[in-house]
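Chain A, query sequence.
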Amino acid sequence: MSLSVVEVATKPFEGQKPGTSGLRKNVKVFQKEHYTENFVQATLDALGDELVGSTLVTGGDGRYFGTEAVHKIIQICAGNGVSKLIVGQNGIFSTPAVSCVIRKYKTNGGIILTASHNPGGPDGDFGIKFNTSNGGPAPEGVTNKIYDISTKINRYKTCPELKAKIDKTGCQEFIVDGKKFIVEVIDSVEDYMEFMQEIFDFSSIKKLLLGTDGKPGLNILINSLHGVMGPYVKKIMCECLGAPEVNAVNCVPKPDFGGGHPDPNLTYAKELVQDMEKGQHGFGAAFDGDGDRNMILGHKAFFVSPCDSLAVIADNLECIPYFKKTGVKGYARSMPTSGALDRVAAAKGKEFFEVPTGWKFFGNLMDAGRLSLCGEESFGTGSDHIREKDGLWAVLAWLSILAHKNKSVEEILLEHWAKYGRNVFTRYDYENVDSEPAKQMMTNLNNLLDNATFLEKQFSYGDRNFKVAKADNFEYTDPIDKSISKNQGIRIIFEDGSRVIFRLSGTGSSGATIRLYVDSYEADKSKHNMDAQELLKPLVDIALQISQLRELTGRQKPTVIT
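Chain A, predicted structure.
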């Protein structure tokens, strides 16, 4: 029996403009009649001539409304002439796994259902983003096209009679308006796991965890924060690598992430921090909701900043078999990320790139064969094995380094600082700030850039003096496609190389999030083990003084400090 396509009349919704990682709104917004359908249709229409006969991938982090959204996507894909849709079992797929599957099966792209590290549940957030055929987030040219279509949309095509089952793996064939449409439900973990086994030496990591010659193994603790990574951790870390199941906690994905905030930082992954502080584990890690971010801790909760994590991995790529095969091309970081990676790149004579925040900027460099390793200070680390940041990849990279060096996390980091010096870094997040004062703050800062007296101005805190050497609003010209991205964050750089950076984040669903980044280089080994907040207090105070953040927003303290 052939199923029929139905055209449903609709009207545009305001504000369906994708940010750096897709469209994120409160769940209740996506639940509005036609809202989700409009955005999915706009996304498919943006494929143009590629749409009919295409193969796409879909799945997400298991958050509330995800299952309903998967079924809507299946029906709309069927209504628009897509030939095949690959779906993660039960609608579950980590973001790195979607990138892996897109690339492995050479599909035309994928629709990922996630709001990443934002809270979930009926009152939480939902998100939809499109990844292109290279496996990476859609570039601005594509997201702008999606948005433009969303402002003019007057119909969407769907097949409401089509009822696919997504709880069991296998192919389901349907005839839609006389044409075959296939829904293939696949194991969410299998393809990704097989790829990790190609990249890393699993036998070496297994020996590290289980121990050899009568010596005990490394006692690890992995917390998935009730996000999508639970099944991946159970399958890869426990079944394949031998970690005890008791060491993998919060591994059942929940629509509301167990009532928690699925953001792997010292504030929201507090349970992991407290467990690690007891001193029973030598390595700890947490992931965000969709599995592309990670936090690394050593014994007694020794914190590895994402900036340092990236630099340490960059300095030890010989511990990972993948890079022995592919070679190491270049390194890159997002602009707000500390300069720790820059020093490794210079020492190794590798090409280095500083790009705006957003993983899509790394993709062009990877596709051009100029980039092997990259990361962001927002707990994102990855390589050219896929086109997304990859939380579990980063954990396996660290375990590979630990196995190779036979040293603790803290020892490795202290040796790294002794070799390169320490870029002391912190980020202050002020979440859900009223939009108007946040915008006013950025406007005031922008006006400072044109003030000649601000340049070379000196600021003092105690016995420390900081003289402004440069101030700008970061602009990036892509070396591959020559596209220009402006207004990517206000930078104030001092004569000693210290930096303070201000950005308004686009990853929230309401209000504004102000991010303040502070980066300062410390060569004195006697200070390398000091608390980052203590070392950076002078610069933080100066940054707040310059921005008038507290006065304008009324916020005396940040929501999160990392």
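The chain has a mean pLDDT of 95. The first helix runs from residue 27 to 30.
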